[in-house]
Amino acid sequence: MWENRCKIAISGVGYSKVSRAADVPLAAHALEAVKGAIEDSGLTLEDIDGLSTYPELPATGHAEVDGISVVSVNCMMAMLKLPSLTWHMQVGNNNIGGAVQTAAAALLAGLCKHVVVWRAMHNPKGTYQNLPGAQATGPAQFTGPYGFGGPGQHMAVAYTRYLERNNQSRDKMVTLALTQRKHTQHNPHAFFYGTPLSREDYFNSRMVAYPFCLFDCDIPVQGAVAIVMTTAERARDLKPKPAYLASYGQRLHFEVAGRIGSLANYMEGGASSAKLTWERSGFSPKDVDVAQIYDGFSASVIYGLESYGFCKEGEALDYIQDGRIELDGELPLNTFGGSLGTGRIHGLWHIIEGALQASGRAGSRQVKDANVSFVGASAPIVTGTTFIFTREPY
Amino acid sequence: MSDWSAVTRPVPVPNEWTRPFWDAAKRGSLELQRCQACGHFQHPPYATCTKCVSVDLKFEPVTGGGTIYAYTVMYHTGDKRFAPAVPYASIIVELDAAPGALLAGNLLGAEYTEAKVGRRVEVVFEKLNDEITLPQFRLADAKPAERGA
Prior knowledge:
By secondary structure, chain A is of the alpha/beta class. In chain A, 31% of the residues lie in helices and 16% in strands.
């Protein structure tokens, strides 16, 4: 068991508005989310002494311009001019989950007292995932010439292997899409709040990269979310009820860059991260009351459910049926709508929901007795991180 | 069947690790990086052996028969250069001679619906320009007339 179990907590959370068009610079969205999280905690800018983010733009073939298409730590530092700042960190690996884990480590080391972590996502004009230009360099020289562009196709090839090796049908994924869209109707911050989805919508939607249809892919948006993290002791004195961080893990598996189509890459990544998370917390999948599992593409949830240990390999498309992942089901899943409902903001929103459920602040989508709240904060491949939040500091 | 004649493919740019692969393809030969210490074949090429971390790596010819390991059928026309071929099958092939090494390609000379995990394929070569020839794949039982498609 981890000696720092439940010694760190998430306090306040904040959101910007989420829009399809990038009509204002991304820095404005990030600022709105960060200020919202600080206010939700009942803190002021003077209290914030730590900053952490993962600023990558996952769209391919677009420029990263600070403040416009990414919001770096430097950008936030320049905007906030924090008088008490003592620590900041920008991670380049493990996605936004890595930024949250690094912030926890800094708080435990006593380098700062109240850290803000944000994730800001840009929706560039034109095609989101471009193929390489006239020339394909680096790992793309072996994929771009064949029409492989962004992560969607890379995920799609692993998904056909999954489906055909396990004798599974992509039709079963409709349950995930519909259930998450139903959950989205309880989340006013989400892009698809107020927009229902029917079975017919799912099956009549255009195919993007088989087996993924339009509603298997999260919609690119412009927006940001943020959290305030602090020690459990300090969190108890703040306005919202804390969500205690029982444990976390990161994937410990990597294959050669540019190697695509490998299902093992997802499964071993997810399993290695989850193993750390279960062992450090003392919990196991059967203890989990509610789960958020990253769903940039729907198949990530399936790989997550299996590699984290919620069900056996090859069975997740059956596991999600029969109401099991509804708000009152055995494992309420992506209760805020997931990325499929909120739009593409990456895994910090999954972490926020994991914390809100644990602290009992999830409003009309609150799961009853959500004492142990699990989060898989990005696809188990390459950037996978996992977390457990609890209602009580066990 | 996907019409590739109107597609302008991005042209691979070899680097010091990958040049022997492209030089071999130009000669109509498929060569993969092989660890001289443990015998492991790997693709894409890498600075070290992914099995034993040796840096003693050389490119060696392999036979072009294998199976479809995974695939996707692309419908999205975000990149207009590939729009004439939509829907097209982009496949990942595991060669009999190099288990674990995964090569990308298109399924040439067949309907995209023929792409299935486990189906037998063999390498064919598609000349892009005087410098670059792409290893590609067709169904192993396809007729010789369809070669190169």
